[in-house]
Design brief:
The protein is α/β, with parallel strands linked by helices. The protein has one domain: 2,3-Dihydroxybiphenyl 1,2-Dioxygenase, domain 1 (Roll), CATH 3.10.180. 22% of the residues lie in helices and 33% in strands. A hairpin with a 5-residue loop joins strand 6 and strand 7 (126-131).
Length: 138
């Protein structure tokens, strides 16, 4: 079963530096030290906001950014649910498939060193289920 937690909301942005300036410099939101050149993490009360290239986010979910892919149009936003192990990623994705969710991207080792997969709910909302050995989002 899925725990009642959203770990991250990721916004796919056209210009990462412009988005960082808006959210961090302009709105004054606190940027996390885990941020890198390719991703900005912002700490909110109880979860993180992630800014990431829209094209790279669509590619990571194996969706077409143009919306012409078989799996539907990419909305530019994903919700993430972080778990404690690779086994939990696999178990949750298996459960989602059994209850009517669509596995968009099967779980696999990720380029950033973790393990993740994507599913969509019956209305097409995109979720990433991830295990990240580098940090825990609580």
């Amino acid at each position: 079963m899925m725990e009642p937690r959203i770990s991250l909301i990721t916004l796919g942005v056209a210009d990462l530096e412009r988005a960082r300036r808006f959210y961090v410099d302009g709105l004054g939101l606190p940027m996390r030290p885990e941020s890198q050149a390719s991703v900005v993490f912002i700490e909110l009360n109880g979860l993180w906001l992630s800014l990431y290239s829209r094209a790279a986010l669509a590619e990571d979910a194996q969706l077409s950014d143009a919306g012409n892919g078989e799996q539907g149009k990419f909305s530019g936003i994903t919700l993430a649910h972080n778990v404690r192990s690779k086994a939990e990623v696999d178990a949750l994705l298996q459960h989602v498939a059994q209850i009517g969710g669509k596995i968009v991207k099967p779980a696999q080792d990720a380029f950033w060193g973790g393990y993740s997969g994507y599913f969509s709910d019956p209305d097409g909302h995109l979720w990433e289920v991830a295990w990240n050995p580098h940090f825990w989002i609580e």
